[in-house]
Design a protein that fits this description.
- The complex is a heterodimer of chains A (664) and B (300).
- Chain A is α+β, with helices and mostly antiparallel strands and 664 residues long.
- Chain A folds into five domains: 95 residues, no CATH class; 165 residues, Rossmann fold (3-Layer(aba) Sandwich); 89 residues, Immunoglobulins (Immunoglobulin-like), CATH 2.60.40; 199 residues, Rossmann fold (3-Layer(aba) Sandwich), CATH 3.40.50; 62 residues, no CATH class.
- In chain A, 25% of the residues lie in helices and 31% in strands.
- A nine-stranded mixed beta sheet of chain A has the order 17-16-18-19-28-27-26-22-23, sandwiched between helices. In chain A, strands 6-5-4-7-8 form a five-stranded mixed beta sheet, with helices on both faces. Chain A has a four-stranded antiparallel beta sheet with strand order 12-11-14-15, with no helix packed on it.
- The longest helix of chain A is centred in the first third of the chain and has 33 residues.
- With 300 residues, chain B is α/β, with parallel strands linked by helices.
- Helix content of chain B is 43%, strand content 21%.
- In chain B, the strands form three sheets. Chain B has a six-stranded mixed beta sheet with strand order 5-4-3-6-7-10, with helices on both faces.
- In chain B, helix 3 crosses helix 5.
- The chains are: A alpha+beta (664), B alpha/beta (300).
- At the A-B interface, strand 2 and helix 2 of A face strand 8, strand 9 and helix 10 of B.
- Strand 2 of chain A pairs parallel with strand 8 of chain B.
């Protein structure tokens, strides 16, 4: 028999109470010495003997009552050979199979499959098993399934992915699964246990436990020893030259061959000797790129056990600068000059395309990822309506104010109220920038805004859709973000002609325009180089969000899905084609270089991990982490039944004593 | 109140219990008893002159009447009434049951008073006195002797007896038979918690030997008429057996059982020609001594 909570056995001390009480009764003053019992009634002796026996029985019942009570709380279990116990305590086996990129190395993944099948075969009748594939994402292959045939079938046709497994994130995910399960859980982690996957804090590897169930952990490492690896870590373009970095995590000098392919055309191959661990750089000069996005692939030879990371994909953007509509009342104004110059200086992908407001055909607005407005007050009603439609369909605007705004009480497009009309609305005193929201993407260099001198600005009262980004020392907003539909607008509450402030001639103006361009065009969500396992977010813009074609040429979204905002996992290496309204982009996806690190967790670290989990409840986890040769049968329910019976008998017997005394 | 004014009080066992010296107790009892006896119209006492007889060889020279010898030049022995030249053997039971007592004086202590008084009284009558103190074994044995110094030893023997162990009548009676062949008086002081038939079996050889036996059965008032208010666990003082008894039984049935037991003993004694005297330990000793004198006088 085994006791789950031996401390409850301290309750056995309560047995002393009935013993003491009965002893008191035995020593009662009713017991008297008498000269001889020779003439006493024989039947009286029998009665006394009977009563003494009943008294002892009553004592035994009371003592048993307390012993059983303590035992019931101690949660005893009887350990039987597993075959003798029929589904008495079920264990949920959570079998987690690592399918990250590193599992492609050698025979790691086939070993993992064998381990998983072994775990399934060792399951006891009544046990459940959940199969989980863990890589860039966590996927359930089977949920609490007890049929081994179904489980083995679920393992068929699995193959390792290109994503990264973060063991800390995995354990956080498993923590949620564990907390929602009532059965005892035995975690089987089948992985190569790369050291690069271990979180900084070891405690993140240990799932929380609430004491209701037992949780055990068994690690099934499938990688042994240190396997060398070389992989391409980066491809960069420097004007007409391509630079490719190759990183080595192997010993000894090796002749390394590297070839590059641009848009499917094998351009050049170079060889170098790599001495042990480190990084070497291959340069491929005078490469010609096609207009637009170029697919560049660098391939490393010879092949090694980690062949998957010998090929690296990159997108080289050789597009023309994209136009940004600049609406103005005077294309030759200083504000236009400052904006054009700042865009060109910032090495952005955009160029200003000034258009006089009076000459604008609003139908062309949808061509532009974002537009600039020199003076929002100059926008007439028709244009304002068009701009609102543009915004609501996912467009973006950077707007400033100017002399035309002096006649406005309410700003067009955004609808913000101007504090007063005419020149009275202007703040003519010198003001200082006091507060900057540097968490906003356009204000990454925001600290420099404090050096901007503001002579005149409009006092704007933002609405519910407005968010202040830069504030003056009296609390008036200088820069606002306005959201409308799926579009957004940045509103600068002064002019950009260097008359009311010196922002246009301040260095922060260049970085501000660059960041504003990236923010407004949502280029941050269309980063060209991605890691396998990351997600691509397609915001719904107007009537569509977009479509994505994976490296194998399959469209990922159905036609219906293209009308909704989507978060698309980029799980495979290669080039993804992304179509969004008005744009077409290429995204290169490569494996996380941390997955190419061959160092694995030490045995001591893995043992410490298991101990950290099993240490919570040493006895319990030992019981469920051991191979299921024995099974525990809880007997507290039976003890409770016995307890009730004995309590009943004790009541009846105690009552009989009372009856006897009353009648005597 | 002067002691002489109320001699009966001197025989009160509770008063005697305050005296630590058993000889003093015996002397007090006997002297008080004799004072009371002189006032009795029924009984004379042996100290009164009875007759003269010629001195014969073997007689104690102390009893030669020298005044008669001076006048007649003949030696005569002065004999007193009650003098029988007999001897008294006292058998005192000291079993554990004799330690029972509810009146302040246990049955054993009462028995010691009685034995000592009998011994003193016998010595005063010039009888040889001996004693056997017994329980389940013979604990002490003093052969009969008429010497004064021996009386002191006898009283000491009686005084140091304590209640313990069980009761076995066969051994003291066997011992008696082994050492005493001369006829005399035998006083057995016990509570006689035994089978009357067994007692009969033990006393019968003495009767056949010609001994005159008197049985003093000492019982406490609580044994004769117990009063219980609630069920009580009574523990046998000899065996340790506990018996829980109800008030109904003890207050009504038990006295009847005791009475039958006493009657059984009395009948058994009568069948052997022995005397049986029930002594309530709450009563003065004079009744017992008076019984003894009647018994002695009848045997002469």
């Amino acid at each position: 028999m085994n006791l789950l909570a031996p401390l409850f056995l301290l309750g056995l001390g309560a047995v002393a109470l009935p013993l003491w009480l009965h002893r008191l009764t035995v020593q009662s003053p009713e017991r008297e010495a008498f000269s001889s019992s020779m003439l006493l009634e024989a039947s009286e002796q029998r009665i006394h003997l009977r009563r003494k026996l009943r008294y002892l029985l009553l004592l035994a019942l009371r003592v048993s009552l307390l012993i059983l009570l303590a035992l019931a709380f101690a949660g005893p279990v009887i350990r039987f050979p597993a075959r003798m116990v029929e589904n008495t305590s079920t264990v949920l086996h959570l079998v987690v199979i690592d399918n990250s990129f590193s599992m492609q190395a050698g025979d790691r993944f086939s070993k993992a499959m064998s381990e998983a099948r072994s775990v399934i075969e060792e399951m006891q009748p009544g046990d459940g098993c959940s199969l989980i594939l863990a890589g860039a994402a966590t996927t359930f292959l089977a949920d609490n399934e007890s049929d081994p045939a179904v489980l083995v079938a679920a393992l068929a046709a699995l193959e390792p992915g290109d994503g990264r497994l973060d063991l800390g994130a995995l354990m956080a995910t498993l923590d949620g699964i564990v907390s929602e399960t009532r059965d005892d859980i035995l975690l089987h982690l089948i992985s190569d246990f790369q050291a690069s996957g271990v979180p900084a804090r070891f405690s993140e590897l240990v799932p929380e436990q609430d004491g209701e169930r037992r949780v055990g952990l068994r690690l099934h490492p499938v990688a042994s020893g240190l396997e060398g690896n070389r992989f391409v870590s980066q491809v960069r373009r420097d004007q007409g030259e391509l630079e490719v970095s190759v990183r080595s995590r192997a010993d000894g000098p090796v002749e390394v061959h590297l070839s590059i392919t641009i848009n499917g055309e094998n351009r050049q191959e170079l060889s170098k000797t790599q001495e042990g661990e480190g990084e070497i750089l291959f340069r491929f000069p005078d490469q010609a790129f096609a207009r637009g996005d170029n697919r560049v692939t660098a391939e490393l030879l010879p092949e090694d056990a980690w062949s998957g990371d010998n090929r690296y994909h990159a997108v080289i953007d050789n597009s023309d600068l994209k136009p940004v509509l600049l609406l103005t009342t005077d294309p030759s104004s200083r504000a236009v000059t400052y904006l054009e110059t700042a865009l060109a200086t910032g090495l952005t992908d955009y160029r200003a395309e000034p258009v006089r407001i009076a000459d604008l055909d609003p139908r062309i607005l949808q061509r532009y990822a974002w537009i600039m407005i020199e003076d929002l007050g100059a926008v007439n009603g028709t244009l304002a309506t068009a701009l609102i439609g543009y915004l609501e369909n996912g467009g973006a605007i950077l707007a400033a104010l100017g002399e035309h705004t002096l006649t406005r009480a309410v700003l067009p497009v955004g609808g913000q109220a101007v504090a007063a009309s005419g020149f009275n609305s202007m703040v003519t005193e010198g003001r200082m920038v006091a507060r900057i929201d540097t968490s906003h993407p356009v204000l990454k260099q925001g600290a420099s805004w404090r050096n901007v001198n503001i002579a005149n600005m409009f006092v704007i009262q933002g609405g519910a859709d407005d968010r202040g980004l830069v504030f003056m020392d009296n609390g008036d907003p200088l820069l606002l973000e306005h959201r409308r539909g799926s579009g957004r607008m940045l509103l600068f509450a002064s002019s950009l002609d260097n008359t009311w402030n010196d922002l246009p001639v301040h260095p922060v103006f260049v970085s501000f325009l660059s960041e504003a361009g990236i923010f407004l065009a949502e280029e941050d969500s269309l980063e060209r180089q991605r890691l396998a396992g990351s997600s691509l977010v397609l915001q719904q813009a107007g009537y569509a969000s977009g479509q994505v074609i994976d490296p194998e040429g399959h469209t990922i979204l159905t036609l219906a899905d293209t009308r909704l905002s989507q978060e698309i996992p980029l799980n495979r290496k290669g080039f993804y084609q992304v179509y969004t309204p008005g744009r077409e982009r290429l995204i290169a996806v490569n494996t996380d270089p941390r997955e190419s690190e061959p160092v694995i967790m030490s045995e001591a670290a893995m043992q410490a991990w298991q101990d950290a989990v099993t240490g919570r409840k040493a006895d319990d986890s030992a019981a469920i982490s051991a191979p299921a040769e024995t099974a525990d049968l809880p007997i507290w329910e039976w003890i409770l039944v016995l307890l009730v019976i004995i309590a009943l008998l004790e009541s009846l017997l105690g009552n009989a004593h009372l009856v006897y005394r009353a009648g005597s | 109140m002067r002691q002489e004014g109320n001699p009966a009080r001197l025989l009160d066992p509770q008063v005697l219990a305050g005296l630590t010296n058993l000889e003093l107790v015996a002397r007090t009892v006997v002297e008080g008893f004799i004072v009371g006896l002189h006032r009795s119209p029924i009984f004379g006492f042996s100290q009164e002159f009875a007759e003269y007889r010629p001195y014969a060889e073997g007689d104690d020279p102390r009893f030669i009447d020298w005044n008669v010898y001076a006048r007649t030049d003949r030696t005569y022995i002065k004999r007193f009434q009650g003098e029988t030249n007999s001897h008294l053997m006292i058998l005192l039971d000291t079993s554990a049951s004799m330690g029972f007592g509810t009146t302040g004086v246990s049955k054993l202590r009462y028995g010691q008073f009685l034995a000592a008084s009998l011994a003193f009284l016998a010595a005063r009558q010039h009888d040889a006195v001996g004693a056997i103190v017994f329980a389940d074994e013979v604990l002490d044995y003093r052969p009969p002797s008429g010497r004064h110094g021996k009386l002191q030893g006898l009283l000491h023997c009686i005084d140091r007896a304590t209640a313990a162990r069980g009761t076995n009548l066969s051994k003291p009676f066997s011992r008696f038979q082994e050492h005493i062949s001369r006829r005399g008086l035998v006083a057995v002081i016990s509570d006689f918690y035994c089978d009357p038939a067994e007692m009969l079996e033990r006393v019968r050889p003495l009767a056949f030997q010609g001994q005159d036996v008197i049985l003093f059965q000492l019982l406490d008032p609580a044994e004769l008429q117990p009063t219980l208010a609630y069920p009580t666990l009574l523990e046998d003082m000899e065996t340790g057996d506990a018996v829980e008894v109800s008030p109904r039984f003890m207050n009504s049935e038990y006295p009847e059982r005791v009475r039958l037991h006493i009657n059984g003993l009395r009948d058994a004694a009568k069948g052997l020609g022995a005397d049986h005297k029930l002594v309530n330990t709450s009563e003065p000793l004079d009744q017992a001594l008076r019984e003894y004198l009647i018994f002695r006088q009848r045997r002469r």
